[in-house]
Amino acid sequence: MKVTEHWKRAKGKTLLSFEVLPPLKGGSMQAIFKTLDALMEFKPPFIDVTYHREEFIYKKRPSGYYEKTAIRKRPGTVGICAAIMHRYHVDAVPHLICGGFNMEETENALIDLNFLGINNVLALRGDARQFEDKFHPEEGGHQYAIDLVRQIMAMNQGIYLDSNIVNGEKTDFCIGVAGYPEKHYESPNAETDFQYTKMKVEAGSDYIVTQMFFDNSKYFDYVAKCRQENVAVPIVAGLKPITKKYQLTSIPRKFYVNIPSDLVKAVEAAKDDDAVREVGIEWCIQQSKELKAAGVPGLHYYTMGDTETTRRIAEAVL
Fold first, then answer.
1. What DSSP string describes 110-132?
2. What is the Cα–Cα distance from 83 to 230, expressed in whole angstroms?
3. I want to staple 145 with a disulfide (CB 3.0 to 4.6 A). Which of 125, 229, 230, 291 is the partner?
4. CA-closest candidate to residue 193, choices 222, 173, 217
5. Strands annotated E in the chain
6. Helix-, strand-, coil-residue percentages of the chain, each rounded to 5
7. Spatial separation of the C-alpha atoms in residues 21 and 203, rounded to whole Å
8. With contact defined as beta carbons under 8 Å apart, do 212 and 274 qualify?
C-alpha cells in the first residue's frame, strides 16, 4: 500500500513510523529484526530503510603507492525492505539516492523494487562522501533530488531510458522527499531552500518527511509556509532525541539545526551520558505530544539503531 493511503485511512490520527539503518557489510539481518521486534507493538504503517553510497579508502600497495578502492559499508537496502515486508507485513520505504547511481542503475533498482511489490520510495540527493567538500554525482547520474523524482515519475508513466521501449509497464511509486524546516545546510537561505522543496512536489512528490528539529515552532512555521504556497501534500515530522553531549555541536554543524537554549542548558547540566539520554528522551516526548495534539499526519523517528530510546518515546506518546 502507498504510505499516503495509510494517512487517508487514519482520518486525522497521527501515525508513528521508524527509520532503520542497514547493518554494516558482513552483519546480520538479526540486528534489524531485533530493532523492529521491539517497535512493532506501536503498529507503524511503514518502515524506512536508509541507503548509503560507496566510500573510498586508500590501500598501500607493496610498491609503496596507494590504490583508491571503493567500499560499501551498508549494502542491502532493497533486500532488507523485502525481508521487512515479508516478516512484519508492513510497508517498507527504501531510500533511493543520487549518489552512487547513474540513471541506468537507478532505473534497474526501480524495476527490482517494482517486481518485489515495493511501491514506496524516498527520493534523496544524498550527502557528499566523507572527504569531499561538496556532493559529486555519479557519472551519468543525477545532480539533484528533483531529477530523481522526475525519473521515477517518468517510469510511472511507462517512460524508460531506452527510447525503443514502447508501451512499457507503468510503475506506481509513491514518492517521498525531504523537507527542511530550518533549511538544508547547503542552501543560501530558507526561502531558496523552500522553493527547491516546492519544485520537488510540483514534479510529482506525494509527501514530505522533514529533517530533524528540536523546536516545534520551526515545523509549524514550515507547514504554514507550505500551505500558503499551495504545497498541500502530507508533511511528516522527523524526530531524533539527543543522547550524547557532543551532539550539541555535531548536529548543528552537520544538519544546520538549531537547538533551543533550554535543551542545551539541560544537556550541559547532565552529569553523565545516562542523564543526557534522559533529558533527550523527555524533550522528544514533549515534542511528540505537542505535534500529535496539533494533528500532524505522522511522527517519524530516526532510530539510529537505538531501539530502547525510541521504544520509550513511542510508548509515552501513544
1. HHHHHHTT--EEEEE--PPPTT-
2. 38
3. 125
4. 222
5. 15-20, 46-49, 55-60, 66-71, 91-97, 120-124, 174-179, 207-210, 235-239, 298-302
6. 40, 15, 40
7. 28
8. no
SS3 98: coil
What's the full length of the chain, in residues? Answer: 318
User: What string of DSSP letters covers 174-230?
Assistant: EEEEEE-TT--TTSSSHHHHHHHHHHHHHTT--EEEEPP-S-HHHHHHHHHHHHHTT
- Residue 131: pLDDT above 90? no
List of domains in the chain:
3-317 (3.20.20.220)
From the CB of residue 71, how many other CB atoms can be counted at a distance below 10 Å? Answer: 10
Determine which helix (DSSP H) or strand (DSSP E) holds 30, and give its type and residue range: helix 30-37
Whether the CB-CB separation of 286 and 3 falls below 8 Å is answered with: no
Which cell goes with 316? 509515552
Model-level pTM? 0.91
Q: Show the cell assigned to 152.
A: 521515477
Q: CB-based burial of residue 139 (10 Å sphere; 0-12 exposed, 13-18 middle, 19+ buried)?
A: exposed
Report the alpha-carbon distance of residue 301 to residue 210 in Å, rounded: 11
- Cα(252)–Cα(98) distance, rounded to whole angstroms? 24
Distance CA 266, CA 309 (A): 18
Give the integer Cα–Cα distance in Å for 141 and 144.
9
C-beta separation of 19 from 48 below 8 A: yes
Span 263-309, pLDDT tens digits: 999 999 999 999 999 999 999 999 999 999 999 999 999 998 889 99
